[in-house]
Write a structure and sequence with these properties.
The structure holds three protein chains of three kinds. By secondary structure, chain A is mainly alpha-helical. The longest helix of chain A is centred in the first third of the chain and has 33 residues. Chain A has eleven helices and no strands. Chain A is 69% helix and 0% strand. In chain A, α1 crosses α9 and α3 runs parallel beside α9. Chain A has one domain. Chain B is an all-alpha fold. Chain B is built from eight helices and no strands. The longest helix of chain B is centred in the N-terminal third of the chain and has 28 residues. Chain C has a domain of 208 residues. The longest helix of chain C is centred in the middle third of the chain and has 36 residues. Chain C starts with a helix and ends with a helix. Chains in contact: A-B, B-C. The interface between A and B is medium-sized, with 20 and 27 residues.
Chain lengths: 318, 220, 482
């Protein structure tokens, strides 16, 4: 396929992540509700919410600066780009040369940075509280993510996601402790970063416990829609990342035909569904932990990341 | 040696290091004991796998001893002792958990650097086994110096000793491995009996054994 | 008779455990104590007969000129200590410190300890040696805790934990030695037989040997009581029964040192491995200087002499670390003299503590007036251990210092400072203990002072006249040690 084909796949990918992310969030909510023997909201409720919010007037607090208004777009853009870079159903994307784990980490980091700034911008107590907590978690979650990235890069010999995925598909990979640790570490980071139970409750508005919600409390209308959408994108991103690195089966290789891509899409949807069910199961079985316990929880991820990097050196290929 | 068997050996031995880390992380005595039992199970798996790979049937005995004694008898005994003696259920640390973990990471990297540099001539399996074993040994030592209660010190010692067993089984064809594991088991049994008989609860400055003796009419 | 002599090595190994079994079943402490003495004496005789008929070495046992010295010294001090212990224990029973059952336990363990130490000394297999030292440590742990006071238990626990760590490190070193040997001598038993190892050691991987030696030195060094791993030693000496303090200082430390020496020989035989000397010198000097300063401000008399043991083990380790015929000779002589003198001091201290009912230095005054034999015995012992002429300790310390000044003058500075500081501390304490107005009870002790007198006599004699065969033997062994 030529440039057109590559471009079309890349565009499809960008649209797929954008369109699927509210669905994933809705799916998790439905599964969670069913597990609690509630009926729960309809599957498509997140879309309706987004549309409703986008139609409403955006009210901005008096003391807000330009940053407050710009932040949602910046956050959304950064997250969307990051999500679009992770191979979902095919590895041979047009921009796969830039689909680098470090780039993705950096994009997510800048999104978080703007979100924290926006939280503090208005000057309400909740915003500041949320931002400071978010940053406290970030000081542990980001190094952990970086260590995990290092581990993967050391094992696969590249930080590029398509190469990593290709390596994971090859028989070279073998059974490695480092990979197991990296997986657990990445899951912990993903849970913390997406404000899921037990770190944060996405459905709460209780002052004492909220982290993510506290930062976005002042937003309304289309701004809120942007932020909601970017957090949905982030969830999808992490799920795709884990799927791409640790369960890369079904990914369409470079220069694959149309049918391979179809298989890739089917596999991807299957993976998302599985991840959604697992996440819902996990969230219903654990209790939310106290905020001050969260650093311990994230510390585990950091430790696993460090250990995985270390242990990698004693694995095969010494 | 084929790759799968290496991979499995690597996986179990690495798992042992991971569990040693998790031992450092525990702050409840019972959780610590459970984690220790898990460590013993992982060790038994590792030893069993070495027995299979090296075709050394005597190592199966070591694995069986480890499984029966350290994964079942000792944790159960310690559980009962903790319950019977009313030992404080929390692990009291000298140093906080986070610095301890960081020190642990430093120790692991130290042992990797030292071992990999030193054992360049040996085969890969023995090398990684020794590196992991040294890590487990050092982590056990770390646990012994950073814990206050007798029970958690003993757990640290046993963890250290698990590392030694790993090293001994990793050194192919080493004689006396079974004897050494038996000797260690006796040693540990003595410690546990000692804890029970002498009612060693926490550190000694917090318990008055004289008073205990007097209450039982054994004062002198 | 010839059959006995031919199997003398088995005699020293199996007589003690066999006696232990009998002692375990024997009620009545008087008979037990006598049997203990008799058995120790027979073991000593068997050890002496090793000079006459040296058995061939096998895969498990080895008797060469080096360990004969250790075995004979070991069994001799064990014998005299058993004589001392017989009278000491009787007193403990009278005062109710120990019960009959405890005594049975004590006598059994005494013989087990003796057997384990002998096994450690004649083992040719480094794994077997390790097991023997472990058993010896365990028995002493149990004996240290025998009074079951909280302090005794704490001492036993500390000893146990540190000893176990030492043991674990030593095992790791042993495994590494095997790993180094495996590519050269093949798998299986040969990789742990010392006589096989020493033949092939030149071809071993030097890096692996280096690492192994570090672990072994730290591991067995814990048992030797080298700083910074000495913390168990003062407690264990102070809280256990005094005969055990004498055995610990006079024997067990030597056994651990012997293990270090065996591995030092291995290291020296590999041209590419690091020289073991500097490490041993450092640890030795560290222990010497540290213990010398710790001697001041000790409140407990047994604890003070425990620190003195650390100091002397430091000197001995240093001497062996220096190497060379003269320093090795001095190390051997010093080890012998220290064993004799220190156990003599503990004999005296044990009886003093029993007579005065306390171990606190401040509460003991004017011993030479109240208990002339004990008091002067202590004076003589402390004078000897401090290294005053004309005792054997003076000679050996003089030799150590002399060879250090000749070969490494810079190292002589801390060595001499350590010696002088320790000397000052001991003399200062001795003055208070031995002279002045007597305090406390002045009732004479019933115990026999024969072991005390014998040891001190030997030490004095060695200072004036060393028998030429002994000198020749020591010189031969010193040459063996490189």
């Amino acid at each position: 396929m030529g440039l057109i084909g590559d471009l079309s796949i890349q565009i499809t990918q960008m649209l797929v992540v954008l369109l699927l992310s509210p669905l994933l969030t809705g799916f998790v909510r439905v599964v969670k509700a069913r597990l609690l023997r509630r009926r729960g909201p309809p599957l498509l409720q997140p879309y309706r919410d987004l549309i409703k919010l986008a139609r409403k007037e955006a009210i901005v607090a008096d003391g807000a600066s330009w940053l407050f208004r710009a932040a949602p777009y910046l956050i959304f853009a950064a997250t969307w780009v990051a999500a679009a870079l992770v191979p979902t159903f095919a590895t041979g994307l047009l921009f796969s040369w830039s689909a680098d784990l470090i780039v993705i980490t950096a994009l997510l980091g800048s999104a978080r940075f703007f979100l924290a700034l926006a939280g503090m911008d208005v000057g309400t107590s909740f915003g500041g509280l949320g931002s400071s907590r978010e940053m406290m978690f970030a000081t542990l979650a980001e190094p952990a993510l970086i260590m995990i990235v290092f581990t993967l890069a050391l094992i696969a010999g590249s930080t590029q996601l398509s190469t990593v995925a290709g390596f994971m598909l090859s028989p070279e990979v073998g059974l490695r402790v480092s990979l197991g640790m990296a997986l657990i570490g990445l899951v912990i980071v993903a849970i913390a970063e997406n404000a899921r139970i037990p770190v944060d409750n996405p459905a709460t508005h209780l002052e004492l416990t909220m982290v993510h919600e506290a930062m976005v409390l002042e937003y309304s209308g289309r701004h809120l829609a942007m932020i909601e959408l970017s957090s949905q994108l982030k969830l999808l991103l992490y799920v795709s990342l884990i799927a791409c690195v640790f369960v890369p089966w079904g990914l369409a290789p470079v220069d694959a035909g149309f049918s391979a891509h179809l298989v890739g899409v089917a596999a991807y949807v299957g993976k998302l569904a599985a991840a959604g069910i697992l996440l819902a199961l996990f969230e219903t079985t654990v209790a939310k932990m106290r905020v001050f316990r969260v650093p311990d929880f994230l510390g585990v991820a950091l430790m696993l990341g460090l250990l995985a990097t270390l242990l990698r050196f004693v694995s095969r290929g010494l | 040696m084929d790759r799968l068997s290496f991979d499995i050996a690597h996986l179990v031995a690495g798992g042992l290091v991971l569990v040693s880390f998790m031992l450092l992380y525990q702050d409840r005595l019972f959780a610590l004991l459970n984690m220790f039992a898990l460590q013993a199970v992982v060790l038994a798996l590792s030893v069993g796998w070495q027995a299979y790979v090296q075709d050394a049937p005597h190592l199966y005995i070591t694995a069986a001893i480890t499984l029966a004694f350290k994964a079942i008898v000792i944790p159960v005994a310690l559980h009962r002792i903790v319950a019977r003696l009313g030992i404080h259920r929390e692990v009291e640390t000298v140093v906080a958990t986070v610095p301890t973990m960081l020190a642990g990471i430093a120790l692991v990297s130290l042992s990797m650097v030292v071992m990999l540099r030193v054992t360049q001539g040996a085969d890969a399996l023995a090398r990684e086994d020794l590196a992991f074993a040294l890590s487990v040994v050092l982590l056990g030592l770390l646990m012994m110096v950073t814990r206050r209660n007798a029970v958690s010190q003993v757990v640290g010692f046993m963890s250290l000793e698990n590392g030694l067993i790993l090293a001994a089984t990793g050194a192919k064809g080493m004689p006396l491995v079974v004897e050494i594991s038996v000797a260690f088991s006796i040693l540990i049994a003595l410690i546990v009996i000692g804890i029970f008989l002498f009612r060693i609860r926490e550190r000694f400055d917090s318990v008055d054994l004289q008073a205990l003796d007097e209450s039982r009419g054994e004062s002198r | 008779m010839t059959a006995l002599i031919e199997n003398n090595v088995y005699l020293i190994l199996f007589l003690p455990p066999a006696t232990a079994v009998v002692l375990m079943m024997l009620p009545g402490y008087l008979l037990s104590a006598r049997l203990n003495m008799a058995s120790s004496f027979l073991t000593f005789l068997a050890a002496v007969s090793l000079f006459v008929a040296k058995p061939a070495s096998g895969n498990y046992l080895l008797v060469d000129d080096l360990n004969i010295v250790f075995v004979v010294l070991n069994t001799f001090v064990a014998f005299t200590t058993s004589v001392f212990s017989a009278s000491y224990i009787a007193h403990e029973l009278e005062t109710g410190h120990l019960s009959e059952l405890h005594l049975r336990f004590y006598h059994t363990l005494y013989q087990v300890l003796l057997g384990a130490m002998n096994l450690a000394l004649v083992a040719n297999n480094i794994g077997l040696m390790w097991v023997a030292i472990e058993v010896a440590t365990l028995t002493t742990v149990l004996m240290v805790g025998i009074y079951r006071t909280d302090r005794a238990l704490e001492a036993a626990w500390k000893y146990f934990i540190l000893g176990s760590v030492g043991i674990a490190l030593a095992l790791f070193g042993t495994i590494l030695i095997y790993m180094a040997a495996r590519p050269v001598v093949g798998e299986g038993l040969n990789g742990m037989v010392w006589t096989v190892l020493i033949v092939h050691v030149a071809k071993f991987d030097p890096a692996l040997l280096d690492l192994a030696f570090v672990f072994l030195l730290l591991g067995y060094g814990t048992k030797v009581g080298l700083a910074p791993l000495h913390a168990w030693l003062p407690d264990a000496h102070a809280e256990g029964p005094t005969p055990i303090s004498a055995v610990l200082s006079g024997l067990l430390l030597n056994v651990a040192l012997y293990a270090v020496l065996r591995f030092k020989l291995l290291m020296a035989a590999n041209p590419l491995a690091m020289a073991p000397g500097p490490l041993m010198e450092t640890l030795g000097l560290l222990s010497l200087v540290f213990a010398a300063f710790m001697l001041y401000r000790r409140q407990d008399i047994k604890r003070m002499f425990a620190y003195s043991s650390i100091e002397h083990m430091g000197i001995i380790t240093f001497a062996f670390g220096m190497g060379g015929p003269l320093a090795n000779f001095a190390g051997l002589l010093h080890m012998t003299m220290h064993s004799l003198t220190k156990s003599a001091i503990f004999f005296a201290v044990g009886q003093i503590a029993q007579a005065k009912g306390t171990q606190k230095i401040d509460d003991i005054r004017g011993l030479t007036l109240s208990h002339p034999v004990l008091g002067w015995g202590l004076v003589l012992g402390v004078v000897a251990i401090a290294g005053m002429p004309p005792t054997g300790v003076f000679m050996s310390e003089f030799l150590v210092a002399g060879s250090t000044i000749a070969r490494a003058p810079l190292l002589a500075v801390p060595l001499v400072i350590g010696l002088l500081v320790a000397f000052g501390a001991l003399m200062w304490r001795l003055h208070g203990l031995a002279f002045g107005e007597p305090t406390g009870s002045t009732t004479p002790v019933a115990a026999s002072s024969l072991p005390l007198v014998t040891h001190l006599g030997l030490v004095l004699l060695a200072g004036i006249w060393l028998p030429p065969p002994l000198v020749a033997w020591f010189q031969h062994v010193a040459a063996m040690l490189h």
